[in-house]
Write a structure and sequence with these properties.
It contains 19 helices and 20 strands. The protein has 553 residues and is α/β, with parallel strands linked by helices. It folds into three domains: 185 residues, Pyruvate-ferredoxin oxidoreductase, PFOR, domain III (Pyruvate-ferredoxin Oxidoreductase, domain 3, 3-Layer(aba) Sandwich), CATH 3.40.920; 171 residues, 3-Layer(aba) Sandwich (Rossmann fold); 105 residues, Rossmann fold, CATH 3.40.50. β19, α19 and β20 form a beta-alpha-beta unit. The longest helix has 18 residues. The model has no long low-confidence stretch (mean pLDDT 92).
Length: 553
């Protein structure tokens, strides 16, 4: 069973609370859930819509077509009519329905549940008509009201509960849904992506976070502040953000900062300094639609090239691109570990669609903290940038006896002293590259995931799109799927997965095919005989829905 519910209306209509209650309700009943959150940057009056897609059989994907819609004004419903399935159920305040009837908009092929509402609690009335329509347990609904509104005045909770009970006792629905939405098993954990990132980073030794609020990375800072467990600073701009994080890293703290593309650009100079001074640092880059200010609150994946080349100079670094809520947990921990172990710079690439994804997760496992080469008792002639076989030099904590060194933006010798010696320049360039040489031979993880490896046609994608791509492949077994997790270093074992294929299809949310161009070049795919390289691209501000894959059939 799959069911897609859309909640739509202006921002002031408490849509978020309605979505939260619906999502918590389904998580409590053990349904798999994934969301799509679409809102306009012109905040107060413009149309927003949030989709909640549920399944009872481990499926998580997005569909553009809606089974049930809760509409909070006439304009919102009118704009969503083309997305409604035939005989979809519309739940709406009668005054908005009357406005649409005045415009002679034909709603005859929909199931309409309306109610005359004359107070400000539209969201509660419509939500509980929705619950009654789906035969949901009133006790669970009241519990979720209390959870979601627990920070408001008690009378708000009592008012909402009164509305619910009144609806259940008096509102009559002749054509109730035939679906049976009942408890399947124990409750699942419900979380959104940026919270998953933040929560698990804090649990596993994030020690400092710096940021200036910037959609869609803003809520990471919000969660850090609310945790009261991590030192943080909200700086005046991104130049100060990354320099604050680098100072924390210098003191041996596990440090991270985050932003979006335009403001990430302000970090470029300091990132280059981090390369030279070998400061471990993890930077979250959460993409949105560009160029310039672009369409600030919508989805596109335009910054892949930027993440691969985030600053000037000849250098190496790591780019991770998590593809699920579970990986949002593992990859933040992984990013912190890699930055520390290899004394390198890690970019954790995300996008608007993933940052704001709400979904259910399964049991997560405890990771291992790795910090690697730390000297407790450095020698008198301690060399912070000692030339080693691995390229990784031993670090010390600040104030350690004999542990003084110079961290400079200039080329330097093993002590950090500025040098323009030709031979030293060659040796230290090689040293910095050597750290990440043969990366996947040193580590236990793979840089990609393969699904249906025997298929002759392979989709290649990243991030949030993997949810819907998995569903397409499951229903079309002639296709396989490769999900790229490490963009840099690129796992060259991927080439073996592709050599005997007939066609590979890059699926990505940008116009120029940045993922396709990068992997094709790095693995020399155009030189594989009889391999067809094609693509499916989308750049209309919205994510890939299952229907977008139809043209591949």
């Amino acid at each position: 069973m799959n069911l897609n519910t859309r909640i739509t209306g202006p921002a002031w209509a408490w849509i978020n609370s309605t979505v939260d209650i619906i999502a918590e309700l389904y998580a409590e009943l053990w349904y798999d859930l994934i969301s799509d959150i679409e809102y306009e940057s012109r905040i107060k009056w413009w149309v927003n819509f949030f989709d909640v897609n549920i399944s009872d059989n481990w499926e998580k994907f997005l569909t553009k077509y809606v089974d049930i819609i809760l509409a909070f004004n006439a304009e919102s419903l009118e704009r969503q009519l083309s997305s409604l399935k035939e005989w979809a159920t519309i739940i709406i305040n009668k005054k908005w329905l009357d406005k649409l009837n005045e415009k002679q908009i034909d709603l005859s092929n929909f199931n309409i549940l309306d109610l005359e509402i004359n107070d400000k609690y539209d969201n509660t009335y419509l939500l509980w008509i929705y619950a009654l329509f789906l035969n949901l347990d009133i006790d669970i609904i009241i519990e979720k009201i209390t959870n979601v509104f627990d920070k408001k005045w008690q009378e708000v909770i009592y008012k909402n509960i009164h509305i619910v009970k009144n609806i259940f006792n008096t509102y009559k629905i002749d054509n109730k849904s035939e679906l049976i939405i009942s408890k399947i098993w124990v409750a699942k954990e419900l979380i959104y992506w940026n919270k998953s990132l933040t929560y698990w980073a804090i649990e596993w030794w994030l020690e400092f976070y710096a940021a200036y609020p910037m959609t869609p990375a803003s809520t990471i800072l919000w969660e850090v502040i609310n945790s009261r467990k991590v030192k943080y600073i909200q700086n005046e701009d991104e130049v100060a953000v990354i320099n604050s994080a680098l100072w924390a890293s210098y003191t041996w703290a596990r440090a991270m900062c985050g932003s979006s593309g335009w403001w990430f650009a302000l970090m470029s100079e300091a990132l280059s300094f981090a390369v030279q001074a070998e400061f471990p640092i993890t930077v979250v880059l959460s993409q949105r639609a560009w160029p310039s200010t672009g369409t600030p609150t919508y989805h596109e994946a335009w910054d892949l090239n930027y993440a691969l080349n985030p600053t000037f100079g000849d250098f190496n670094h790591v780019v991770l691109y998590p593809s699920s809520l579970d990986e949002a947990y593992y990859f933040w921990w992984l990013a912190l570990n890699i930055a520390d172990k290899y004394q390198t710079q890690v970019i954790l690439l995300m996008d608007k669609q993933s940052s704001e994804l709400i979904g259910t997760v399964d049991l997560l496992h405890t990771p291992v903290i790795e910090r690697w080469v730390i000297l407790e008792n450095p020698p008198l002639d301690y060399k912070r940038y000692e030339l080693t076989e691995s390229g990784i030099s031993p670090r010390v904590k600040v104030w350690t006896k004999n542990g003084d060194f110079i961290a400079t933006s200039y080329e330097h010798d093993e002590y950090g002293a500025t040098s323009e010696d030709s031979n030293l320049k060659k040796l230290f360039t090689e040293k910095r590259y050597k750290k990440l040489d043969n990366f996947f031979e040193k580590e236990w993880y793979k840089g990609y995931e393969v699904i249906n490896s025997n298929a002759k046609k392979m989709l290649i994608t990243t991030s949030f799109t993997s949810y819907t791509a998995k569903e397409f492949v499951k229903n079309n077994p002639e296709f396989g799927l490769i999900i790229i997790k490490f963009l840099k270093p690129l796992d060259e074992r991927l080439l073996e997965e592709l050599k005997d294929k007939e066609e590979i299809i890059f699926v990505e949310s940008n116009y120029s095919g940045q993922l396709e161009n990068y992997i094709t070049k790095e693995l020399w795919l155009k030189f594989i005989p009889n391999l067809k390289i094609s693509h499916l691209r989308k750049y209309d501000l919205f994510p890939f829905y299952i229907e977008d894959f139809d043209e591949l059939k």
